[in-house]
Amino acid sequence: MLDKKKFKRIVGIGCIWTLAFVLTGCSILSNTKNKKIVESAVSPVEISFWNPFGGGEGEFVERIVQDFNSSQKAVYVKQLRLESNEYYVKLSTALSSGKGPDVAVAHVDRMSPFVKAKQIMPLDTLASEVGFDFKELEESNVRSVSFMSKPYALPLDTHFHMLYYNKAILKKAGMLNDDETPKLAVSTPEAFIQMLQQIQAKVPNVEPFAVNTPYFQEPFLNMYYQAGGELLDESKAKINIHNDKALHVLKFYQQIYDSKLSDVNDKTPWDTFHNGQAALWMGGVWEAGYHLSEASLPAGIMPLPVLFGSSMQWGSSHTLVIPTYVTKDKQRAAMAFMSYFSKVGSMLWGQAGHVPANRAVLQSQAYRQLPYRKLFIEAQHGVKFAPQTDKYATMFTTLSEELQSIVMGGIDPEEGLVQLEKKMNSVLAN
Prior knowledge:
This protein is an alpha/beta fold. Helices cover 46% and strands 17% of the residues.
């Protein structure tokens, strides 16, 4: 395995030479020692890069862009960060109008409508032109961005949920081992609830389990996928969510809420955990730096407990795409930047908490020596990406709204699932 410095040096040099060969305006000369050097004959190609990354993620991306711009003179990346809640509206408008970014971030579950409308381009030929091989990436990530057997994006990562735990609270509840790992060897919903009740009884002034009720579709899908559930039937044309698996999961969460093991009205459960007021929190890997680096918070992390039969869980991926309106020289420049982000920038991106899709980085000693990354790699294998349908974004919104109505409004789970399936099928039909 390569150490971090050697890995970055080797890959970085490769990316710089790739840029020299594929971008217009570069010539190869010989110096007095008969070694080839590269000189740029024209100004660098400037490309715009849109992304929705704020907070800690934004800082890592800023560093990757700066490092890329400093590493060579053929391409200059100008970054534009948009607010996450308006990002896809603005990106969709830009792609439709043919005027916007030269390279952009797109979550894997938001790609399908862009592919269907021919607004983003396949990358197989372009990748070959700049010397990038999709075989360098995890196969599951490449499959997730492939349509008609062609990759339409360069996947950067996989992100998903882990179970965060407060060591001090678990110790008070008699549920912490000597090595500060939790005694959470549970394998059924009933056993998990009994464990939460033990926390409630021994540490009554905290929330045993902070559930992401504001975005309840995510904790729901984690357990629904564990139970073997699917959002679409085999035909991929109809919703398949009014079933015993979904009903079992919903009743599990409703029992947790009804027993006051989680506060259904908690609007910021991630802060509840971070402030030391919750024993457990099912949060994203991207929160690892936030929770685990807080000196006043004795937090640990582990894969989600297997409660419904399998280790499958919800997950997604950040990818980079190139709009079809982008000119040829900027296409090459964009692909060269994407290649750098994958090969070199992924080491920084992995520090943000995401699991890199680039296999060399993922397998490097430098990445694996980061705290808890071996657990991340273990959990990654159970991630289930969204089904490829151009209606997924609307489906996901409907799923979110209707599940909120069920858990917040006290609706009977079976009745709620009937209405949920009906509304989601209406979305597919239209």
